[in-house]
Design brief:
The protein is an all-alpha fold and about 325 residues long. It contains 15 helices and 2 strands.
């Protein structure tokens, strides 16, 4: 074995061990610097368009900031938050949002799981890809286009749905009745968003080892028992992820109600995001709108954490 002294003796006279260590540190620094250079464009956009607006909105929520007011912005602390808690319009909008989430999220999970299981049962890969494309295709349509099309579908006088129901003597007030208006928004949302959770659940089903299902079949478990006692427990992490993103998206609903119903009738579909938008950009109360946005953020975080805890315990 070559000793340390012999190793040092074989080094060139001009390159000492300290010089080698310095050169190694320099190369490592250049390697890390190259990585930072590649990440810098994303970090810049992330800070400018996400981090800065986030903290700016937090600062704004503590200010009385009204664009059309001759008075300059002034700090009022938690005044905007207290005003929101005493605002009946805020609670009405939050109630409509919660109603939408409660109506759309469970139905989305059940339908997406059923479609994913049906797609997984299709043996032909070409047919499965075609069906998956058909289910996912509506999610690629922008909300403005989809909202305008469905607004025509729901039209009470010359809409497609009432035209199909006319032979049965049925005429549904899709957008003129408070109860039917929210149901119409839920129906349109299911059509528009069902593709994403379905594709995610299909990917989760493909990760389940087939040996578990085969072992259950050998033990005499039928298709239904295999699904509820083998597939669902193993699919729980994916279901948790889908449930959380659906709840977050449900609380942030805006485009459907804004385009199809404008919050009507009788403010039955005026969700919280629409109220925040109207307060901030129609009434020019940016501070109050920012405070309601942060309240919505807190609600989403609390509900998501409760959901994660509940599903993990189950």
């Amino acid at each position: 074995m070559i000793s340390r002294a012999a190793t040092v003796a074989t080094l060139p006279a001009t390159e000492t061990p300290s010089a080698i260590r310095a050169r190694t540190r320099h190369r490592r620094f250049l390697g890390r610097l190259g990585g930072y250079v590649f990440v810098l464009p994303y970090l810049t956009l992330f800070v400018v368009f996400l981090i800065f607006p986030l903290f700016y909105g937090l600062w704004l929520s503590g200010m009385r900031y009204e664009l059309v007011s001759p008075q300059p912005p002034r700090f009022i602390g938690a005044g905007n938050y207290l005003e929101a808690l005493r605002d009946p319009a805020f609670w009405n909008a939050l109630g409509a949002t919660v109603l939408f989430v409660v109506a759309v999220v469970p139905v989305t999970l059940v339908l997406a799981l059923a479609l994913a299981a049906g797609l997984e049962a299709v043996i032909s890969s070409r047919r499965q890809s075609f069906y998956r494309l058909c289910i996912f295709l509506p999610t690629m349509i922008t909300i403005s286009v989809g909202g305008l099309v469905w607004r025509w579908f729901f039209n009470g006088e010359f809409g497609l749905f009432n035209a199909l129901l006319e032979p049965l003597g049925v005429k549904v007030p899709w957008l003129t009745s408070p109860g039917w208006a929210m149901a119409s928004i839920v129906l349109m949302t299911l059509w528009w968003t069902l593709g994403t959770p379905t594709v995610i659940l299909v990917a989760g089903l493909k990760q389940i080892p087939r040996s578990y299902l085969e072992a259950a079949a050998v033990d005499g478990a039928g298709a239904v028992r295999r699904f509820f006692w083998v597939t669902l427990p193993l699919l729980r992490p994916v279901l948790l992820f889908v449930a959380v993103i659906q709840v977050i998206g449900g609380f942030q609903v805006f485009g459907q109600t804004f385009i199809i119903t404008r919050g009507g009738p009788e403010q039955a579909t005026r969700v919280l995001m629409q109220y925040i938008y109207e307060t901030s950009f129609n009434m020019y109360r940016l501070g109050y709108g920012a405070a309601m946005s942060w309240l919505l953020f807190v609600i989403i975080v609390v509900v998501s954490l409760a959901q994660v805890r509940l599903l993990r315990q189950r």
